[in-house]
Amino acid sequence: MTADPQTHHAVWEGNIEELKGLVSEKAFTGESMILNMGPQHPSTHGVLRVILELEGEEVLSCIPDVGFLHTGIEKNMEYKTYEKSIVMTDRMDYLNPMGNGLVYCLAMEKLFELDVPMRAQIARVVLAELTRINSHLVWMGIGGLDLGVTSTMTYAFREREVLLDIFEMVSGQRMMSTYFRPGGLWRDLPDEFEGAVQNVLDTFPAKIDDYDKIITQNPVFVDRTQGIGFISAEDAVAYGLTGAALRGSGVNWDIRKAMPYSSYEQFEFDVPLGQHGDVYDRFIVRIAEMRQSLRIIEQGMKRLQKEKGPFRSDNRKYVPPPRAELGRSMEAVIHHFKLWTEGFRPPKGEVYVSIEGPRGELGCFLASDGSPNPMRVHFRTPSFVNLSALEKLAKNHMIADLVGIIGSIDIVLGDCDR
Amino acid sequence: MKRHTLLQYAARSLFRRAATQRYPAERTPTPERLRGTLHWTPDGCTGCCLCSKECPANAIEIITIDKTTKQFVARYHADRCIYCGQCVVNCRFSCLTMSPEEWENAALHKQAFTVYYGDAPHVERVLEGFVSQDSASNPST
């Protein structure tokens, strides 16, 4: 990309032949125009570049170009021990740090066959649901902003602050929490946790109702989203969409119900479904999901009051001993040194675990060769897979609608590129 | 009537207290678990270097002044630190703490991010160019 010396406009110097097969023949005869959107564009939710083929304002085809936020986290994890790499998972999807930590810990626990105490499992569910609300609030704020409902952003970010304060109180960091560890939690939940979550449970339902009204009763928003970005249930399944993007088309698939993990089978909640598969329905599904998350948190908090057991497994081959043990047990000191200098050596094998993240199926594939470092870690991230359906969703819509469609599949580029 | 929700919300907000704070003047108390600037004390340190070995970001170096009398200096790279708190967890002798009060870590020059902890004469020797006797203790160099 260089600037034209006379007009000072940026000129693309790429070879149009590279796009053969990706765009229609019209682009080569000059009937349609190729336009580059992004990567530094406020409405692409990060550094996403979309190559658009346009006829007037209509999108004929669009090619998402990812990789601008590639951080090499998966490769980097191979050079760190299992416990060290947990800090890296927080940095992938920065709106879902607890979820990333959860799926990595679940994969490790499946590989080591490590039991997690009930209190830790319930705490994980509560925190994962709080993270889901946190992520949906950001999506609602930014998604509304894309479509001209600017006030949602300030409201959503104000509410998110309450949730971030809870994460800070629990883990010591607002976003990069690193709270879930193999076998349980880093530390037990603090005493103030219960009051803070109760405050969320008391205030959020009314606020979610308000935001629902602000958006769904806004005629401009409804006109701009209904019938836009349609995908049928069959296509959604064929493209591998998951999360609200799939449920917006009416497919009842939620990993929390289909393949329960971390004691989700003991919670009562509904899976909200859309009917039409357009941007509006995906919006409604996510708003309804926030209400269901509050239901799960309420049940979880009741159970946490009763479950007062340990918060971390006491399998000393994988879990370091608490500080109190170090002063009186030689064995504990040996385990402490062994675990922190060398790390643990899990059995050889491969596991795949998936959870329902805020954006869809978040999976973790872990291969171990018996050494203290993982041989391969791969994350199946919903943003990447859902983004592949962008062309199908955006075809024959206006450019202005494309912005709403990108918002409706709720991508996070840190999650997509990792 | 339905369409007035946003207007009602705006009208209500007019009479509410602002959600934001006047930050430098008004400060929220920080939670006790907040992971802020790392501190190291030489008392009790045996130079086992678990902290520097386990650090995912190679932010800690333990410089051995004299191994027999257990005299060490810690060089802490605040710009590399990712504030995960792993070192605080694995120090057996509680030499490391993360202060919940110190979280405003911006500085105008890079030198501020290399912090030395230890007894003053030892730190001076390190600043004058003393090289650690135990090279194995510094995985980052």
| Percentage beta strand of chain B | 15-25%
The coarse silhouette of chain B is elongated
- The class by helix and strand makeup of chain A works out as alpha+beta
Span of the ends, CA to CA of chain A:
25 Å
Helix content of chain A: 40-55%
The CATH topology of chain B is Alpha-Beta Plaits
Describe this structure in words.
- The complex is a heterodimer of chains A (418) and B (141).
- Chain A is an alpha+beta fold and 418 residues long.
- Chain A has helices spanning 26-29, 73-77, 86-89, 97-112, 118-146, 151-171, 193-216, 219-225, 233-238, 244-247, 255-258, 279-306, 323-326, 330-341, 382-387, 390-394, 399-408, 413-417; strands at 2-3, 10-11, 33-37, 49-55, 58-65, 180-181, 184-185, 349-356, 361-368, 376-380.
- In chain A, strands 3-4-5 form a three-stranded antiparallel sheet. A three-stranded antiparallel sheet of chain A has the order 8-9-10.
- The mean pLDDT of chain B is 81.
- In chain B, the strands form two sheets. Chain B has a three-stranded antiparallel sheet with strand order 2-3-5. A two-stranded antiparallel sheet of chain B has the order 1-4.
- Chain B has one domain (29-128): Alpha-Beta Plaits, CATH 3.30.70.3270.
- Chain B starts with a helix and ends in a 14-residue tail after the last helix.
- With 141 residues, chain B is an alpha+beta fold.
- In chain B, a hairpin with a 4-residue loop joins β2 and β3.
- The chains are: A alpha+beta (418), B alpha+beta (141).
